[in-house]
Design goal:
By secondary structure, this protein is an alpha/beta fold. The protein has two domains: about 220 residues, Spore Coat Polysaccharide Biosynthesis Protein SpsA, Chain A (Alpha-Beta Complex), CATH 3.90.550; about 220 residues, 3 Solenoid (UDP N-Acetylglucosamine Acyltransferase, domain 1), CATH 2.160.10. Helices cover about 20% and strands about 30% of the residues. It has nine helices and 40 strands. The chain has a 17-stranded mixed β-sheet that branches. The structure holds uridine-diphosphate-N-acetylglucosamine (UD1) and calcium ion. Calcium ion binds next to loops.
């Protein structure tokens, strides 16, 4: 038995009112279609077929760029969900015995659920099996009509439903499993709707009329079926996905003080007994060690943090932070910032493309860019590396145990020796030897002044 899958992703998503194809709108930091592909790829024997149409180049690029192994079929005109499926026929005909169909705008639908759908289909012996939810769903769902014996007899789209049908509380999720040969044979029997669209949902009625029973997998959790049609749905999906990811971390030993305002993207890892405070976002491939305190109001993007480190009210991008470091409030670590173990970075500091050695203290209002700072250096309040001369960026080197006085301007390229000191307000334009004290504007060695 071979099973293939088709993901519907050709629609513009008119109700999003967006320039971006609907399926590329992010949910917890990544395009919603990524979740839909991940939910099917483990269940099939062939790479999933993604039906692309509106914004097809962007959709192809997003999936291929992220390394997904998928095939694409183009639906040039979006003539409805059944027409979309027919665009995959030449790719899949005779390649598979069953076809699993899902929509790329349902990021919350889980692999386990689709596995149950496939299993139910195999047991049923029918030609198609569908999924439904009962209860509260957003607008726009088709209704599942049942006969007097309780069997599904049709799916009626909301736009054409009678008032009685509209009162039905069982909704079509839009995930199906088909016998492939039957699907290809019967797609062509679907008649266009009043809107000249071919609805995949019409296959239920067609199967039932042929005497087949259409089994339904009723999902226990309606949230899984959330299909994104509008930005209101998008916000609901964001919330639900965030809580799903956050629950996994809490159950794995991470404390989240306010899961509703904590965003943890799927590529992030967090060590045991770390506490995340409210309004914190951990993005990309951020890695956080054990026993850390992160947040509140903190965003970390592709940043590595060791153990027992504290970061509050700060932003870091592409940075590396060691163990027992304290950062913030109100710091910005930019690309290439490396803070070794024990660094203290107090309020209003910025570090870019620089390494701060072990136990460096940088308490207040400083900018360190393109610098190598040795261990145990004290960076006084208001210290600035003047790294840009208007044309290029220049390096500042500060030797270990140096003491940089408050408000020192280090005009790069410049080297401050080990154990050297600069007086408050110095503008350092020349290298300072080891153990030397300089001060003034421009800074001179103290002994020359005597
Ligand atoms: C569809 C179902 C509805 C179900 C709902 C669940 C149909 C006719 N209706 O309605 O019964 O309750 O999903 O969310 O199937 N697409 C294409 N090509 C097209 C049209 C759509 O690829 O020509 C894709 C869209 O990109 C989207 C998916 O199919 O990913 C569903 O389309 P959408 O317009 O959102 O259908 P709904 O109105 O939500
Ligand atoms: Ca939809």
């Amino acid at each position: 038995m071979k099973i293939a899958s088709i993901l519907l992703a050709a629609g513009q998503g008119t109700r999003m009112h967006s320039k971006i194809p609907k399926v590329l709108h992010p949910v917890v930091g990544r395009p919603m279609i990524f979740y839909a592909v991940e939910a099917v790829q483990g269940l099939v024997n062939l790479p999933p077929v993604v039906i692309v149409g509106y914004g097809s180049d962007a959709v192809r690029q997003a999936l291929s760029g992220a390394g997904f192994e998928v095939q694409f079929a183009l639906q040039e005109q979006q003539l409805g969900t059944a027409h979309a499926i027919s665009c995959a026929q030449s790719l899949l005909e005779k390649q598979a015995d069953q076809v699993l169909v899902t929509c790329a705008d349902m990021p919350l639908l889980q692999e386990e659920t689709l596995q149950r759908l496939v299993t139910l289909h195999a047991q049923s012996g029918g030609v198609m099996t569908m999924t439904s939810v009962i209860g509260e769903v957003p607008r726009g769902f088709g209704r599942v009509v049942r006969n007097e014996h309780g069997g599904a007899s049709a799916i009626v789209e909301e736009a054409v439903a009678t008032p009685e049908q509209l009162a039905i509380r069982e909704y079509n999720v839009s995930a199906y499993c088909f016998e492939a040969a039957w699907l290809w044979e019967n797609l062509k029997r679907i008649k266009p709707s009043a809107k000249k669209e071919y609805y995949l949902t019409d296959l239920v009625e067609i199967a039932v009329k042929q005497g087949y029973k259409v089994e339904t997998l009723v999902l226990p959790d309606p949230a899984e079926a959330l299909g994104i049609n509008t930005r209101v749905d998008l916000a609901a999906a964001e919330h639900a996905m965030r809580l799903r990811i956050n629950q996994r971390w809490m159950l794995a030993g991470v404390t989240l003080l306010d899961p509703a305002t904590t965003t943890i993207e799927v590529g992030v890892t967090i060590g045991q007994d770390t506490t995340i405070y409210p309004n914190t976002a951990l993005r990309g491939s951020t890695v956080i060690g054990e026993d850390c305190h992160i947040g509140p109001d903190t965003t970390l993007m592709d940043t590595e943090v060791g153990d027992a480190t504290l970061i509050q009210n700060s932003v870091a991008e592409y940075a590396r932070v060691g163990n027992y470091v304290s950062i913030g409030p109100f710091c910005h670590l930019r690309k290439g910032a490396v803070l070794m173990d024990g660094v203290h970075m107090g309020n209003f500091g910025e570090v870019k493309a620089s390494t701060l050695g072990e136990n460096v203290k940088m308490g207040h209002f400083s900018y360190i860019g393109d610098a190598k700072v040795g261990s145990n250096v004290n960076i006084g309040a208001g210290t600035i590396t003047c790294n840009f001369d208007g044309e290029k960026k220049n390096l500042t080197e500060i030797g270990e145990n140096a003491f940089i006085g408050s408000d020192t301007m280090l005009v790069a390229p410049v080297k401050i020796g080990k154990n050297a000191r600069t007086g408050a307000g110095s503008v350092v334009t020349h290298d300072v030897p080891d153990n030397e004290l300089v001060y003034g504007v421009p800074a001179r060695e103290a002994k020359e002044k005597k």
